[in-house]
Amino acid sequence: MAKNKILLALAIALNAIYSTANAQVTSTEHSMLSPKEQSLIGIGASTGKGDLSKLKTELNAGLDAGLTVNQIKEALVHVYAYAGFPRSIRGLQTFMAVMNERKTKGITDSIGAEASPVNDQRSKYERGKAILEQLSGVQEKGPKSGYAAFAPQIEIFLKEHLFADIFERDILTYKERELVTVSVLSSIGGVEPMLNAHLNLCLNVGLTQQQLQQFVETLMQKTGKKEAKAAQKVLDEVLKNKK
Hints:
Number of helices: 12
Order of helices and strands: HHHHHHHHHHHH
CATH architecture: Up-down Bundle
Strand content: under 5%
Low-confidence stretches: 7-11, 16-29
CATH topology: AhpD-like
Distance between the termini: 56 Å
Number of strands: 0
CATH superfamily: AhpD-like
Mean pLDDT: 90
CATH class: Mainly Alpha
Number of domains: 1
Structural class: mainly alpha
Shape: globular
Radius of gyration: 22 Å
Largest sheet: none
């Protein structure tokens, strides 16, 4: 009887150790960016910077990591909102070449889902405003200020086009879109206030501080020390203000 009690106690102890270790592994996995997310960083940064040779490598890595063709197309289209049509179109042309090369090699990639139809009957401005409030966690109140008051038309374009036409498409999640966004902004440089704002949005949509630190590390590997150092400086400011 005593022997059975000892064996039972040992089994319970081992199970507790296993459960704790498993929980720690799961927690660590959840605190890390996935291979797909890391690929989106490389794709966004390379496209924004215009480094098409590097982009070709990142596009192949993204497909190999499990990103669908439509997800990558969406990421490349998303870039134009922050780096312009020329960069976005050159990215899409590079992706076309990559797809042709992979097809020649007999590689079949998953096309993935198309964007769901939008059934919201509100105006695009109201839909975009609601999406921005969801991303920022802040309800927009009061009169316009800053650039929105100085040039009201661009504020309308942002609401109707960027946050309605683009962010509303569900091929990429808000997290994925924000990762692409901060990758592009970091690669082009000189837009620190916007990078600061979008790093805050990253936190609001569920990316952790650890994941944003990993974002900077990934940026260094895929883009360079200069871009990563500048992004780290902005991220340090964002996290300091969160304390």
